[in-house]
Design brief:
Immunoglobulin-like, 257 residues, 16% helix, disordered N terminus, 2 domains, alpha+beta, five-stranded mixed sheet, five-stranded antiparallel sheet
Length: 257
């Protein structure tokens, strides 16, 4: 079975709140696999902190299913599956409810979106996989594009960041706080700190678990308009494949060996 996010609307420019523009399953779908996954695409990057069991729910009647929910920053989508290998009940009407999701400026969905579906009797047999990458995959990207003279090398350490070696990354990037603007302020470059960006780590790893969606480094290489200063690298942006490798490396726990 091909798991895709199917279009349920078209985004328009300059909307004040995030919009759901695609979802799996479709409204009125039947034969939906008992193990999901349930996928929700948004028209913009949203705050990962607002993507949770509280904002993405699957329910039947008054009973909600306990879900495991994650946010995919590159695809701008939420992916949810029943927690710990559980399954939905066969041949039952369910609804997927999306509400309260915020964008990076603090705009909140204006109204809940509800998608009704009916389960089948089968499982998907295709669990969504979060890509991971080793240090050896990301090291040459840093060396070629970041750890250059007068930038993030061991000598210059622009913004205090050394990406020239595994030790430099471990001591200056992983768990280190990012220098951001105060929430809501605007700097000379026109970048707003935004409520979400206050207090982010450059590379967010806690207890060996990496979070690309809350790592400031990812937003800088994506060129997100909220970041302070220029997108990185300023002269030759990373390719989509290189950005995906950086994201996969962080999601692997940002190993440095």
């Amino acid at each position: 079975m091909l798991l895709v996010a199917c279009d349920v609307g078209s985004p328009t420019a300059l909307r004040d709140a995030p919009q759901v523009v695609g979802a799996y399953p479709l409204e009125g779908a039947s034969g939906v696999p008992l193990d999901g996954p349930f996928i929700v695409n948004f028209d913009r990057r949203v705050s990962p902190r607002s993507v949770s069991r509280g904002s993405i729910r699957v329910a039947s009647g008054n009973t909600s299913i306990f879900l495991s929910v994650r946010y995919d920053i590159l695809e701008q989508r939420a992916v949810a599956v029943p927690f710990d290998g559980a399954r939905l009940t066969p041949d039952v009407d369910y609804r997927l409810v999306i509400e309260g999701v915020e964008d990076l400026d603090g705009g909140v969905m204006a109204a809940p979106v509800t998608i009704h579906f009916h389960t089948g009797r089968d499982v998907a047999r295709q669990a969504p996989v979060r890509a991971t990458a080793a240090w050896g995959a990301v090291e040459p990207i840093f060396a070629r594009s970041c750890a250059t003279a007068a930038c993030h090398d061991a000598s210059f350490r622009a913004a205090g960041l050394d990406l020239s070696s595994s030790n430099g990354v471990a001591t200056t990037a992983i768990g280190a706080p990012a220098t951001t603007l105060p929430s809501g302020s605007v700097g000379e470059e026109g970048a707003s700190g935004g409520p979400f960006f206050t207090g982010l780590r450059i590379v967010d790893v806690l207890g060996g678990v990496g979070r690309a969606d809350t790592s400031y480094l990812v937003y800088t290489v994506l060129g997100d308009p909220h970041i302070y200063g220029d997108p990185m690298p300023p002269d030759a942006p990373l390719s989509s494949g290189e950005i995906a490798t950086v994201v996969a490396w962080i999601n692997a726990g940002a190993p440095t060996q």
